[in-house]
Amino acid sequence: MKTKAIRRLAISALFALSSAASAQTYVWDMPNEYPATSVQGEGDRHFAELLKTKSQGDIKIVHHFGASLGFRSKDQLDAVADGAVVIANTFVPPLGGINPIFVLSSLPFLVSNASEAYMLYEVARPYYDKELARYNQKLLYASPWPASGLWGSRTYDKPEAVKGLKMRTYDPNGTLVFKAAGAAPVQLSWADIVPQLTTGGIEGVLTSIESGLSASFNDYAKHFTALNYDTTINMVTMNLDTWNKLPAAGQKAVLDAAKETELFLWGNIDKVIQRNYDTAAKRGVTIAEKVDPAFRRYLQEQAEPVIAAWVKRAGKDGEALIAEYRQRQKVATTVAANGSAN
To answer: Tell me, what is an example of a GO biological process annotation in this record (predicted)?
Structure first.
């Protein structure tokens, strides 16, 4: 079924491209695994409107949310590379088996807020560009998810609070970190969470405030602790062959729309989180926005072996990347501290 869909899209893309050669108009299918109402869906629509305006209507995006074309994020790297689709919005951690650079944003407790997450992305951008070029595509922009925290029956604000906690994690790193912290984590798919919550199989869920609200976790868990475990990202990439065939004006329109969208999404993420907090509060959820620094340091200590293992796997590039990020992080912290003192 998926093979037929890919062939159909490939033929459609070639037809659109050949037609566009004379008319200078382009229509691009854009798959996204997540719903139109998600922060990623909103970003796609923002980009499409900007691109339509900046290209004077010559480049139009056709959205396919909720994996409606049959592509999951792990499929989209090849789909864009082969030209089955011209452009896609992809959640990158599932691509970690291809290159460790793609799991960078999901490393636990490496960043503590959206500003640091963007700093990490800026440092990593050349590495992303290099790897994506190997897969015949160009990185246009990255967009963040709200940071992950813990949904549960209470606030988790000290080491004792997570001791023995039966909780859901979404990747091996999370399982390692919280097991080291004394919890009883289990890696569960999204579809298995609610059944486990309702039967008492788990008490806590590691995910973002937005994701939890979308699945009505507030019906089963009345507390959310903003641990800032990670700030994962999606990337919007486009087929490099299509990019190279665009006229200069078309390339400029794409780059300008991408840059404005990226700045909008990163600049707006704190507002998105606050909007989610307001929604959660209306649903009776208690939000712990500030976590005891001592507790966060404790969790960071449990995460260090995971980060070290990633650096070893990523080699010299990973070592250089983390070193540069931590140097920038240190400078930013010093500047902020001096500003507060003044």
So the answer is: transmembrane transport
**Ranges of H-type helices in 135-231:** 159-162, 172-180, 193-199, 209-214
Cβ–Cβ under 8 Å, residues 261 and 50: yes
pLDDT score for 335: 85
pTM assigned to the model: 0.86
Q: Is 219 left (phi over 0), alpha (psi -120 to 50) or beta?
A: alpha
Closest CA to 231 of 214, 207, 258: 207
Residues 6+ apart with CB under 8 A from 139: 125, 128, 129, 132, 235, 236, 237
**Nearest residue to 110 via CA among 274, 288, 325, 255:** 325
The pLDDT score that the predictor gives to residue 194 is 93
Q: List Cα–Cα distances, 103 to 94, 244, 249, 284, 311, in angstroms.
A: 8, 28, 34, 34, 11
CATH class of the 2-145+230-275 domain in this structure? alpha beta
Residues of the chain short of pLDDT 70, as ranges, are 1-23, 340-342
Domain ranges of the chain: 2-145+230-275
248-282 and 39-54 helices, crossing angle to 10°: 150
